[in-house]
Amino acid sequence: MRILLDVMGGDLPSRELVKGGIIAGRRHGLNILFVGDQKTIQEALSEHNEREGDRFSILPASQTVGMDEPPVQAVRGKRDSSLIKGLIALREGEADAFVSPGNTGAVVVGSIFTLGRIAGITRPGILASIPTVSGREILVIDVGANVDCAPKHLVHFALMGASYARDVLEIPHPKIGLLNIGTEKSKGNKLNYRAFEILESSPLPFAGNIEAHHLLTGRPVDVVVCDGFVGNVFIKALEEGSAVVTGLIKGSIQKSFRGKLGGLLLRPMLTSLRERISSRRLGGAPLLGVNGVVVIAHGRSDAEAIEGAIIVASRAADADLNKQLERGISGWSKNGG
Amino acid sequence: MRILLDVMGGDLPSRELVKGGIIAGRRHGLNILFVGDQKTIQEALSEHNEREGDRFSILPASQTVGMDEPPVQAVRGKRDSSLIKGLIALREGEADAFVSPGNTGAVVVGSIFTLGRIAGITRPGILASIPTVSGREILVIDVGANVDCAPKHLVHFALMGASYARDVLEIPHPKIGLLNIGTEKSKGNKLNYRAFEILESSPLPFAGNIEAHHLLTGRPVDVVVCDGFVGNVFIKALEEGSAVVTGLIKGSIQKSFRGKLGGLLLRPMLTSLRERISSRRLGGAPLLGVNGVVVIAHGRSDAEAIEGAIIVASRAADADLNKQLERGISGWSKNGG
Predict the structure, then answer these.
(1) Which among A268, A255, A262, A305 has a CA at the least distance from the CA of A285?
(2) Portion 260-289 of B in contact with A at CB < 8 A
(3) A257 shares contact with chain B (CB less than 8 Å)
């Protein structure tokens, strides 16, 4: 298996991202095709005593899509960017999956333009995987690809989320919930009410409305469906809520001898906790609904996060993500899956 | 000062809510007018060695608005409910403020129908106050009164939030941020983009877009403006993010001797942390934009939370909330305040 890695668009320098690719390649027996500035990649490879070959190869690209560039403009204008060259190589079958820590909007638009969408899906969605208290992950779709959704888009997210949960993660009967501000059908905005009506009468395993404050402690469903604006605020607020508590704990621990001693005893636990909820562990979020395996890594991704995103990508490619999604979607649409 | 307290609509029994009113009355020298079943209130008063008089008085009401009742229907149909009788008493000047832990939608609709709106505001908004790492609160409006907002409604929330921050909380130059999924003007959905354009050219102290994951750790602004659906998901996700971390810590502490010892040493700190971020401390959220001081307490409010909500209400009444809001809104609208 060969994974394309965009080493240009992230917040961290290319050599940090190349390092992540090298670690992933070595540890998991994957071939990595780095897309970006050839010289920088070659230098990073030799720093780690590696050189171009079958395991680590290079696809040169001279342009970078910046984090704040308007997506459509960037995709149209920068044909020699690591993003577009990588996506074209994916389309041409030079690799099995594409990982980018770049401008999310540009990755979404570039993927739609370059790869096209799978049958039945008008808007691809980004699926995030969040660790819960029980240890099992909960999936959230969409977390930022679409910010002005119609009800049918939420239904498509539900279809793709259900199929991903069942066919890629092998959860036999995944439950779908609609993120809302109350559990009754009448609660929430017009978008949610209409999506509820459609989902309710669909063959999907729909469990109704769910609220943000029970998701990680109770894990009432396997897949959470929402508009991309709401989903993005949701995951960032979760991150912020946990950052506040860990920050306050750290502050209090340093304040007294008693606190310092207690903190010292609890250090291994706090460290493992931090690792468990860190965005690094999350790795990357697949963009579902385009013709190809595309995984979006966090813009702040370091080598460890890139390794995580590459694992997500290789698993999705292993499971033959897009065939499974198409099969799942048409199955649920036709006969109730 | 006299505060009306609805003791019928909450999740907890009336006598728990009466207890909260008694504590608030005693500790803060307030008169409490309890609205609800007369006999139950009388019994709860005598349990605490109190009786009807000037300090604690009763406004009998025979009906209860349930948590899941459709708001408009409940408000129209239940004229003898504690909610409607309380709001009418507020309108008639029998008290200075009204506190209810009941059905949020019904409180909003009932307040608009009974009290009317203040000049210049088409949609009232609920303002929540969230503790941050620095200790200073950050205000969020709207957290659930309106779920399908137009750009002008967000602008009204900004006006009311700014005025509340300046004129009630006495923050001299409150900064306003728009909750979005990126900081650039072009980010987010249509609603936010249009609201950004209006706010940008308004005399309000507008600081631009802000993201959910820096709000409590960085506190970049004093007031966060958002649609009520997004705001409600936002505060519930913050709560959930912190609940996950405290839950995982508790779990880990109990697992080993070392953890137990560390936990014991850190117990006072963990307790004060829990108190600091608990929804009890938040007390109540004022409904801004109606003609009268209305404070919505959490449905799960116990006596302590009710005391907190009553304090919020008495401060708002003390500051002459509505006059200040009207003055602030017309000032900013006319001359740049």
Answers:
(1) A305
(2) 261-266, 269-270, 272-273, 276-277
(3) no
Q: How far is CA B187 from CA A67, A103, A229, in A?
A: 12, 12, 10
* Chain A partners within 8 Å of B147 (Cβ): 181, 188-189
CATH of B1-121+289-314 among 1.10.10.10, 3.40.50.300, 3.40.718.10, 3.30.1330.10:
3.40.718.10
Shared fold status for B1-121+289-314 and B123-281 = yes
Residues 119-158 of A with CB under 8 A from B: 132-133, 144, 147-148
Check CB contact under 8 Å for A189 and B248: no
* CA–CA distance, B301 with B83 (Å, rounded to integer): 16
What is the dotted CATH code of the domain comprising B123-281? 3.40.718.10
For the stretch A96-108, what's the b/e string if a residue is b when 16 or more beta carbons lie within 10 angstroms of its beta carbon? bbbbbbbbbbbbb
**Chain A stretch 287-316, residues whose beta carbon is closer than 8 A to a beta carbon of chain B:** none
Highest mean pLDDT among A81-90, A157-166, A302-311: A81-90
Chain B residue numbers with beta carbons less than 8 Å from the beta carbon of A216 are: 240-241, 243-244
Look at residue A336 in the predicted model and tell me its pLDDT. 44
Is residue B335 scored above 50 in pLDDT?
no
Which residues in A lie closer than 8 A to residue B272 (C-beta atoms)?
252
Query: What does DSSP assign to residue B64?
Result: -
Q: Report which secondary-structure segment, H or E, holds B97.
A: strand B97-100
Mean pLDDT over residues B4-28, rounded? 95
Q: Is A269 within 8 Å of B252 when comparing Cβ atoms?
A: yes
Residues of A in contact with B269 (CB under 8 A): 249, 252-253, 259, 262
pLDDT at B336: 44
Q: Which CATH number fits domain A126-281: 3.40.50.720, 3.40.718.10, 3.20.20.60, 3.40.50.11810?
A: 3.40.718.10
Interface confidence (ipTM) of the complex? 0.90
Helix (H, G, I), strand (E, B) or coil at A57: strand
Q: Which DSSP helix (H) or strand (E) runs through A224?
A: strand A223-225
Contact A291, A113 (CB under 8 A): no
> What are the two backbone dihedrals, phi and then psi, of residue A170, each rounded to the nearest 5 degrees?
60, 40
pTM: 0.91
DSSP per-residue letters across A102-128:
S-HHHHHHHHHHHH-BPTT-SS-EEEE
Domain limits of chain A? 1-121+289-319, 126-281
Residue among B27, B23, B29 at smallest CA distance from B2? B29
* Cα–Cα nearest to B6, from B28, B37, B27, B30: B37
Question: Looking at the complex, does the CB of residue A234 fall below 8 Å from at least one CB of chain B?
Answer: yes
Task: Let me know: does A64 contact A53? Beta carbons within 8 Å.
Answer: no
Share of chain B above pLDDT 70, in %: 95
pLDDT for A27-63, tens place per residue?
Answer: 999 999 999 999 999 999 999 999 999 999 999 999 9
CA B303 to chain centre: 16
Q: Is the per-residue pLDDT at A168 higher than 90?
A: no
Judge whether A247 is closer than 8 Å to chain B, CB to CB. yes
Closest CA to A88 of A56, A61, A53, A122: A61
The answer to whether the CB atoms of B179 and A240 lie below 8 A apart is no
Q: Is CATH 3.40.1000.10 the right assignment for the domain spanning A1-121+289-319?
A: no
